[in-house]
Amino acid sequence: MTLHLSDSDILAELEPTAEANLNDHLSKAKMWHPHDYVPWDEGRNFAAMGGDDWDPEQSRLSEVAKAAMITNLLTEDNLPSYHRELADTFGFDNAWGTWVGRWTAEENRHGIVLRDYLVVTRAVDPVALEEARMSHMTAGIAKPEKGSQFLKGVAYVTLQELATRISHRNTGALCNDSVADRMLARIAADENLHMVFYRKLCAAALDLTPDEAMRAITDVILRFQMPGLNQPNFRRNAVLLAKHGVYDLRQHLDVVLRPTLRIWRVFERTDFGPEGEIARAELHAYLLDLEAKAARFEEQRDRALARAAARV
């Protein structure tokens, strides 16, 4: 029979790991300042200050780039909701509390710099952006389903931070603007370090309680959604971004899931009991299905792009 640990027991057992990973993170994280990534000389007043309000003609970004930037910013904007969930999961004791504070402070820069860039360059409608922010932050995010909040939490944020890194980098390339590309590369570097912290924690949890951790990982992957799910127009924008290679099923499978599962040695481990084996078998079947779906999506996208090119 598998021994199930409480979240408090897991936190106590993994606190030394959290402290070591925190120190490693602090040694690698580079200090940067949002104001250094914004072209302030492009800024001018809006109508309330005697200037001109936004007009679509003022934006240099394509419709896809605008959708990607708005999606990325609104995702970063929901930081208070993420902080609350992380604090509920980790608490504020010892290294856990230090990490919660540090992660929140680093993430806060992302929303600051993205908004400053978009408003100063008049890349998107600032009124619509603010209305979307109000709606998204009011909705917040939902807690994981039943089971260990810690195990599901660290599994989810590992995958989510990596997915966000990919989305930021691909958005930067899509903007066709060296300033935006540099800014989003800087944000992506932060997200990568955050992902590494959580990935190491999840690896330690797999060693500590293999069956429970495997169950949590499988449940998270089978139900994975990006944290922007509650954004206005999220599903429409997600489809648009997938069609243009910002983040799609192939990237989710080949750049997020498979590399992470290899690092965790999920399909090589020999320490699972019956519960862990069942969860691993479910995950294997899901990945096979996801491969088929990714291939179908790529075929459909290629045909659609070929038809569009033929019409030009």
TrEMBL record:
This is Acyl-[acyl-carrier-protein] desaturase. Its cofactor is Fe cation; Fe(2+). Fe cation 2 binds at residues 107, 161, 191, 194. One of its GO terms (molecular function) is metal ion binding. Fe cation 1 binds at residues 76, 107, 110, 191. Belongs to the fatty acid desaturase type 2 family. Homodimer.
